[in-house]
Please model this.
Amino acid sequence: MSLKDKIDTERLPEHIAIIMDGNGRWARQRSRPRVFGHRHGVTSVRETAEAAAELGVKYLTLYAFSTENWSRPRAEVTALMKLLVQTIHKETKTLHDNNIRLLAVGNLENLPKVTLDELQDAIKETAHHDRMSMILALSYSSRWEITRAIQEMTKDAKQGKLDPDQVNENLISEYLTTKGIPDPELLIRTSGEYRISNFLLWQIAYAELYFTPKFWPDFRKEDLYEAIIDFQKRERRFGKTSEQIVK
Ligand code: FPP
Model:
């Protein structure tokens, strides 16, 4: 029985989020520059997106560039932005072939114009696809997102568009950049680090966390299957007792 066959497609996580980590260390192990790892990470992105879409996962969010990543050496930031443009351009066909819609969350205004243009074109071109949504978190951090949401809410309250008494969890979700996207049920982080790194802090309140020692450029379809199989073995109680969970 293959790993894929062990997955119960009736109980898939609807939304999987991934912290793609370890590109730099993967490159260092091969005595190559960090960007070599990022380039190889693109293959993992393609494989993971295909595997998730084939299984029937509806949303896949990838942490591609954090707000904090802007402080990396200038040459690496430039190379990553260039790689993003090339990848989005080249992989739009993969998105079409797999009926995948591209979305992006984050402080997109900070992206170089050419990156933003390429991204917006691909988002527009794939807007009609409905098998799966692939969401790139770019220039994203959760604290930035929550701060921005509070600023927007305060502004709306001042202008009389929002009644402070109406503020509840659903309304807060509406002010986040992930508005309309269900919360991830499974969060995967590669490279053996056990951190969340300012990623989707509000949205992962009840997500199952899965850590693998593999570096991102080595992550393949089988690794996604393993994570989902592990997820399906877990009992998700949402604060209740085992007995209260209807099996
Ligand atoms: C983390 O590894 C990876 C990144 C900051 C960039 C991820 C980008 C890609 C995989 C390429 C393009 C992606 C898309 C979605 C088009 P790291 O550099 O932090 O590795 P390290 O922890 O070993 O240094």
